[in-house]
Write a structure and sequence with these properties.
This protein is of the alpha+beta class and 429 residues long. The chain has three domains: 163 residues, Alpha-Beta Plaits, CATH 3.30.70.1440; 92 residues, Multidrug efflux transporter AcrB TolC docking domain, DN and DC subdomains (2-Layer Sandwich), CATH 3.30.2090.10; 165 residues, Multidrug efflux transporter AcrB transmembrane fold, CATH 1.20.1640. Helix content is 54%, strand content 18%. It has 14 helices and 13 strands. Strands 3, 4, 11, 12 and 13 form a five-stranded antiparallel beta sheet that branches.
């Protein structure tokens, strides 16, 4: 089922340009599809719409699109914002950036937010004539507003409804604007009440310009939004930035800034990278306070890098990328890896005085902890396998997390069962 909506709604709660249409597509059950995945469906829609020249399309979710628009001014995974004061140069640079983006592998659904094609009547005072006849920008604007627009003068209360009373001229400029010659002949009064034609003291021209000018922090900008298909966003942005620097000559006073989902991902990754070292330090202090040995604490922490290697290798094998869900998976993986190490080392410490030799004690303790450690790992692995195989809505978020935990647990468990006993023996000797 398809539902189309063009332009803004009546209440203005969902503002859009008049040239924009939202197509809401309600998908049938997956078992009735002619395609195996949603990506294949999107590719087929792109191919079907390709012959229509001048149409820019993008695929997203309704809430995701609105959040992205509020945060970055664009609806794509990557948004390139060009800030500058000159509208014509903004349009030129935005088109150059859009052309450069097509050269980067993985770029799709490229579109610019600067809407061209608006027609304007430009009225510019001739200073000498205007001063002699008694016209200024202020009184001219006031007079023209009364001719172009309606002026509210009061309200009428009818029951519970307030009806505004407005005054306007019957032959308003709304009808005259189609003819520049007729517009130039409009007679306007100066402050003394004398009437003069508009052409006596002003130049009237029909000019073209943008239908929408966006601003951020009081600066004009145009955004080039795009989606990324088949590669990681960070690598895509790095390559795109290099090509823009090389091929686009920015005018004086112009600057380029990257946004979109990439910005949110970069912010989240930066926050995680700043927190993780402190978390590891706290874990080391807790382990040291438990075992009263820095060597044992560091030995358990050694599980973390081996677990991370397994998670990274899993992402590489499956073609997934480092994302926020994958980062959350790494955090969960670190906790499980440390837990298994604590289980093994604490059992070693309990058994170290129960045997004559360290080697026999380690063998006995490792054998007794084999089942609990394997149960911990296999329970998590089998519980996450359905997320790896999932293809429904939300699978793109769940899959990287599950892949990291499953593959990381494999290497972390091997380290716990084989390398950790050897390290404990070395430390004990």
């Amino acid at each position: 089922q398809l539902i189309a909506r063009t332009g803004s709604d009546e209440l203005g709660l969902d503002p859009m340009g008049l040239n924009e249409t939202d197509l809401f597509m309600e998908l049938s059950p997956v078992d009735t599809w002619r395609f195996d995945t949603k990506d294949e469906l999107i590719a087929a829609i792109r191919e079907a719409l390709a012959p229509f020249i001048g149409i820019n399309i993008g695929f997203t979710q309704p809430i995701q699109m609105r959040v992205s628009e509020m945060l970055t001014g664009g609806t794509g995974a990557v948004s390139v914002k060009i800030f500058g004061h000159d509208i014509s140069l903004l349009s030129k640079v935005a088109n150059q950036v859009s052309a450069v983006a097509t050269q980067v592998e993985g770029s799709t659904d490229i579109q610019t937010t600067l809407i061209e094609g608006g027609d304007y009547i430009n009225i510019k005072l001739r200073p000498n004539e205007a001063a002699q006849l008694g016209f200024t920008n202020e009184n001219l604007a006031r007079y023209l507003q009364s001719r172009f627009d309606v002026s509210p003068i009061g309200l009428i209360i009818q029951g519970n409804v307030s009806v505004p009373i407005v005054i306007s001229e019957r032959n308003s400029v709304k009808n005259l604007s189609s003819s520049l010659a007729l517009l130039k002949s409009i007679r306007l009064p100066n402050d003394e009440g004398q009437l003069y034609r508009l052409s006596d003291f002003a130049d009237v021209q029909l000019v073209s310009g943008p239908a929408l000018i966006e601003r951020e922090n009081a600066q004009r900008f145009s955004a080039v939004a795009m989606n990324v298909d088949g590669r990681d966003i960070s690598g895509f942005v790095e390559e795109l930035n290099a090509k823009i620097t090389e091929q686009v000559d920015l005018p004086v006073g112009f600057q380029v800034e990257f946004g979109g989902e990439f910005k949110n991902q970069e912010r989240a990754s930066s926050r995680l990278l700043s927190i993780i070292p402190f978390v590891i330090l706290i874990i080391i202090l807790l382990l040291f306070s438990t075992f009263r040995s820095l060597n044992l604490a560091l030995m358990i922490i050694l599980n973390i890098p081996f677990a991370l290697v397994g998670g990274i290798y899993g992402l590489f094998l499956t073609g997934e990328y480092l994302s926020v869900p994958a980062s959350v998976g790494f955090i969960a993986l670190m906790g499980i890896a440390i837990l298994n190490g604590v289980v093994m080392v604490s059992h070693f410490e309990q058994k170290k005085f129960s045997s004559e030799s360290v080697s026999s004690m380690i063998l006995e303790a490792s054998a007794s902890r084999l089942r609990p450690i394997l149960m911990t790992a296999t329970t998590a692995i089998f519980g996450l396998i359905p997320l790896i195989l999932a293809t429904g809505p939300g699978a793109e978020i769940q899959k990287p997390l599950a892949i990291v935990v499953v593959t990381g647990l494999i290497t972390a468990t091997l380290v716990t069962l084989y390398l950790l006993p050897l390290l404990y023996k070395k430390v004990s000797q």
